[in-house]
Structure formats: structure tokens, C-alpha cells
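Support case: 3-hydroxy-3-methylglutaryl-coenzyme A complex. Customer-provided input:
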Amino acid sequence: MDREIRIVEVGPRDGLQNEPTPIPIDLKTDFIERLVASGLVHIEATSFVSPKWVPQLSDSAELWPRLPDGGVYSALVPNAKGLERALELGVERIAVFTAASEEFTQKNINMSIGESITTFRQVVADFRVAVPRGWVRGYVSAAFECPFSGRVDPEKTLEVCNLLASEVGVDELSIGDTIGVATPSEVGNLAGLLVNDYAGEIGHVAWHFHDTRGTAIANVAAALEWDVFRIFDSSAGGLGGCPYAPGAGGNLATEDLVYFLEREGYATGVDLETLARASLPVLELLGRQPAAKAQVAALALASR
Ligand code: HMG
Ligand code: MG
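Agent response - structure generated as follows:
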């Protein structure tokens, strides 16, 4: 069995975007340096979204040139203005983001799902012309449940996934359990629909779980059972949540993901102890103790 796996670290973007306390750019740079030092490679560093909507990431233009060597970085781009800003900085990997729920899409990007697909089709077409070797990820948030309108029909999620694959032409898809409600059978159900009917490359589908209710690792295990899914998103220290998704506490902690994958025989290339320390300065600024389970355990082990 192929035991290769790819972790997409979203801490600097998804982890920090919701924090009201301004985090100095030096601290963000230090956080990313620590993540790279731990062995993480794919890192979603920031967003080129409206600074009015997400003030915490309004420093993305200053941060981007400071990103340390050793990482492969991407950033969220919601529209033409975001693309223009990203291209000025030479960004080669972008992520567009819609949702499986109309209400969530409206609250998050002020567009309907249809408008978001039309917008992203143009953004991605322009990006491909500007950066022929560029790479595009497409997010489908609220893939299982919407914080405003409740449970989402998996067929609807599949439909939006297919719009991103065939209309927008994304290279990779990330399926977000934005509010951390899903359980393994729901993941298995959606995985089955995707395996049968996804219009893009099934091996390029990532899962983005939140651990709000403690189901994230069980959901990773459920996705792995299909033997085709090899990309998982997570956030160091379990930081984060979406500012436009009430109750979206805690992304799956990268420490929990790394521990689980390594123990299951997958090679992540990440040093757990170095990773466990990576978010400590950010947590200290925010006045929080480390809370991710495998992070706490790794720190305790290191201090013995
Ligand atoms: P809007 O207000 O409809 O935009 O927002 P607009 O076009 O009317 O522009 C309003 C103002 O923003 C204008 O400035 C624009 O120039 C400016 P003004 O004239 O008022 O001074 N503006 C921009 N400035 C900088 N960069 C830009 C940009 N665009 C407009 N790109 C918009 C529409 C899409 C911009 C807004 O809704 C937005 O930025 N939303 C982003 C929200 C966000 O980042 N949410 C979190 C990410 S999604 C998530 O976390 C889920 C995920 O992690 C997966 C999961 O967990 O499930 C991906
Ligand atoms: Mg998230």
C-alpha cells in the first residue's frame, strides 16, 4: 500500500484569520519559520481578501516576501482584486473558496454559489494566463452542515465540487467540515459519491476537518479507508476557525494529525516535538495554553 501522504498546514491563514488580537508580522513570520523547521512543506500562508472582512490578514502583501525558504506557499484569493494583489507579489499557488450552502457563501464572500463559480472561472482563467505553471485549489466549505441553514445534502456538495472541477478548473479540491459536525459515516457517504462521480482527479481531493466536537481524527480514518485520499488540511496547535462561521472552533490540530498518521504507518516528514513548539509564541500572545492533545503530550514528553 502506498503510504505517501500530504499535509496542508493552514494555521497561518485559517488558524489566525479569526483572531481579534492583531498578531505582529514578525510573529507570523516566526510561526511560519517554525512550521517549516518542523518539516511541513505545504503551507497556506495568508489571504488576499478584503482587509475589511478579515483585518487579521491585511498584512498579506508585507508577509508574502518574507516567507522563509523551504515551504511551498499558497494564499486565498476571492476575486479579481485579490488576484491582482497576489500577482503583483509573484504568488504561484492560489485557493478560491465557495461552499455547499447558499447562506454560508453569501455570509462569507457576499456572493451566491453561482456568482462565486462565475467569479472564480474568470479569476482562474486570468491566473492561468499570468502564471502558466500555477496551481489552484478550490475549497467547498460547509460540506456537511451550514451554521445558518443546517444539514447539507451530500448530492449538493458533490454538485459544487464538480462545478469547481469542470467549470473553474481547479487542480485540487478541499472539502471543508467548517463547523466540525461530521462523523465517519457521513464522510464515508460523501467519499463514496466523490469516488463514483467527481469530475476531477480523485487523488487530488483533500479533506479539511475541524475538531469542534472531537470527530476530526475519526473522519481522517474514514477518508483513508478509501485508499484514494492522501491530502489532509490541519492547523498547528488546532488554531482557528472561520470568521463567518459561528461555532467553527478549532481546525484539526496538525499535531493530532501527524501523531495519528505516523502511528498508522504513513510518513509525514514532520518532527512532532518541533511542531508542538511552533505555535507556542502565538498562543502566548493570545493568552492561551496549548490545548491540542498530541501537542500537549509531545510537550510533556519533551520536558521530562
Ligand atoms: P464585498 O464587500 O462584496 O466586495 O466583499 P466589494 O467588491 O464590494 O468591495 C468592497 C471593498 O473591499 C472595496 O473597497 C474593495 O476595493 C475592497 P472600498 O472601495 O470600500 O474601499 N476589496 C478588496 N480589498 C483587498 N483585497 C480584495 C478585495 N476585494 C474587495 N480581494 C469579498 C466581497 C469577497 C471581497 C469579501 O466578502 C471577502 O473578502 N471575503 C473573504 C472572507 C474570508 O476570508 N473568509 C474566511 C475564508 S473561508 C474559510 O475560512 C473556510 C475554509 O477555511 C474552509 C473551511 O474551513 O471549511 C476555506
Ligand atoms: Mg478551516
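The chain has a mean pLDDT of 96.

Case will auto-close in a few days if no follow-up is received.
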